[in-house]
Design a protein that fits this description.
CATH superfamily: Beta Polymerase, domain 2
Number of helices: 5
Shape: globular
Order of helices and strands: HEEHEEEHHH
CATH topology: Beta Polymerase, domain 2
Low-confidence stretches: none
Mean pLDDT: 93
Structural class: alpha+beta
Number of domains: 1
Distance between the termini: 36 Å
Radius of gyration: 14 Å
Length: 125
């Protein structure tokens, strides 16, 4: 799966599972550790853990291997490493504290999530 497509697939999984404040950043020009970061928020530690499991399960079914997983026990900030895409799933307090977008967003690297925009347009009368 192409890097951009993988990042958008992950964002869609998170959206379908009711994650909030989903952001996808292309960071390939800023770091060598990954090409994309997907950042999302769960409402509770339990939901953060469930979101991480949902992403992992769906991608495993697609044949995408998880390289590493950190933070599962605490459920405050879980990182899933898919090589070209890093997924950060936060508890709301941790998301506000770490504010990863401030570190990695350069004003031009946010990937539009058209599926969210399309659904919001369709929901309006």
């Amino acid at each position: 799966m192409e890097n951009n497509a993988l990042a958008l697939r992950i964002a869609r999984i998170l959206y379908d599972k009711k994650a909030s404040d989903i952001t996808v950043l292309n960071v390939s020009h800023l770091t060598v550790i990954t090409d994309y970061m997907v950042i999302a928020t769960g409402r509770s530690a339990l939901q953060v853990k469930a979101l991480a499991d949902d992403v992992d399960d769906a991608l495993a079914m697609d044949g995408v291997a998880l390289r590493a997983k950190e933070g599962q026990q605490e459920g405050q900030w879980i990182v899933l490493d898919y090589g070209t895409v890093l997924v950060h799933i936060f508890h709301p307090e941790a998301r506000r504290f770490y504010h990863l977008e401030r570190l990695w967003e350069d004003g031009e690297n946010r990937v539009p999530l058209t599926f969210i925009e399309d659904e919001e347009k369709a929901a309006k009368p």
